[in-house]
Design brief:
Rossmann fold, 312 residues, 29% strand, 8 helices, Elongation Factor Tu (Ef-tu), domain 3, seven-stranded mixed beta sheet, alpha/beta, 3 domains
Amino acid sequence: MTAGEHESESGPLQVRGTVLTVRQVDAYYAMTIVAPGIAARFKPGQFVAVAVGGPDTSMLLRRAFSIHDVRPDHGGTVEFVFAAAGRGTRWLAERKARDVLDLTGPLGRPFPVPRDPVSCLLVGGGYGSAPLFALASRLRQRRCSVDFLLGAASGDRVFGALTARRSGRSATITTVDGSLGVRGIVTDMLGQVIHEARTDVIYACGPMGMLRQVTALARRYDIPVQVAVEESMACGIGVCMTCVLPVVGTDGITKMVRSCVDGPVFRGEQVRWDEVGTIPFDAFGAPGWEPKMRRIPARPAADEARRHGHGA
């Protein structure tokens, strides 16, 4: 463990990590930080929470970023991708090599991976596609086939198109303005890609509206979908309750769960997309709550294990 890391037996690490590089990738920035403890513990789908603004800043809240890549054997580096959209991320974009940042991770529940080889479709919107590439590597280790479907408003906002084309069995790109790939949005092409790839399971990360539509279309094809939600996270460790959303449990009861510790990865069909941002009247603990269950359709046990069982 390097100086500046605080470790517990099961929890994440708090690290003072040295910035290795900050590079602009089209409309985004990719930052690589030396954080060997986080790199060693990382699983695809997890994220880091980064302190911004320096020691005297008024920006007290950390910023959460999905981990794009780790290199445990190359100094223990962690890379994440972000858009310089606000004060905190603009400050991050101005960091230089050898600057030191405070970050905590890896946080959150990772993507589950199949036990047996299946056909996996990875769907990403904007820089939401960043965590899908580490997942793709993990899936290929399990001898799964990997297809990509990536989209954004314009070509400079599609993250990882070249990597997807090089590493995926297939890669379909969509842009709203038609500047790269097919004109349109990812869900316009989803049905076609599912048919051509003979998709068994879908993994998706991107804007909440996109995740909602991907989930709805996946249900038409009876394909399980795992989504990494994009909810604002103030603390990243389950204390502040700013990232809650309504999720139906296996018992059929809706609970307000924390995206940062109960997610960010959920089964798409369990999220009550129409009521994200609200507390449904029938959610556990809501005023007047009664135990009226909303059952999640069960899959045969063998099919469930084959399609999206958790791996070691």
